[in-house]
Molybdate ABC transporter, periplasmic molybdate-binding protein (Acinetobacter radioresistens SK82), 253 residues
Amino acid sequence: MKKILFSYMCLTLTFSSTQAGTVKIYAAASLNNAMTEIAKIYQAQYPQTKIVTVFGGSSTLAKQIEAGASSDLFFSADQEWMAYLVRKNKIHADQVRPLLGNQLVMISPKYLHIPFKPQPDFKIAKVFNGYLCTAQMETVPAGKYAKQALTRLRWLNDLKGRIVGTDDVRSTLTFVERGECKLGIVYKTDALISQKVKILGIFPEHLHNPVIYPLALTKAGSNSPEAVRFQKFIVESIQSKTIFHHYGFSLKP
């Protein structure tokens, strides 16, 4: 009888270990709302799996993964940081899937009325007082896109000393919401979630590289059935696609 009970316990533990697990996804800060909702829906369908979301600037997250942080999926706000992890042998190139698109916009606090024309002859530095916020322009994707746009518009020099670099795009949004920055450059999806800012205009796509969000399993994640299943849910499920659309992302074919 004891042998039967012992065998039953072993089988139960084995079954539990294969059914239960944790999946950790490192995702760009601009994906916070969408991925939080998707994770909740997924966990309701698969309660044996715990989804852990870590949000931040794609550059910071990529460096953490490179340094050995435990992660199963990486959802970047640009293709460069994904390619970086491929070069560092943390992600297989054939796992990378360009999934979402976004737009770059100029925002201000709702109570301000600042004109905006994304044209080289528009004197941006003269139409507002104070600072313009954007993510760090050398590393964070939103900031890199912003620098490209400001450079091609020939506005960068005129704004010298008035640009505040933040850790990620959500920090930029917070600075503008508080009025600490009179202008901010963020993604359209970030602007749409706030009741305290307004979109002054969209930067035409020819002013910066395409805003593309690739998703990939890390090497550790590719060996996890739960991570593989969650990635498939993000990419293929109607629930995920509906949520991404709701927050203003475009879906890549």
In short: The chain has nine helices and eleven strands. Residues 1-19 have pLDDT under 50 and may be disordered.
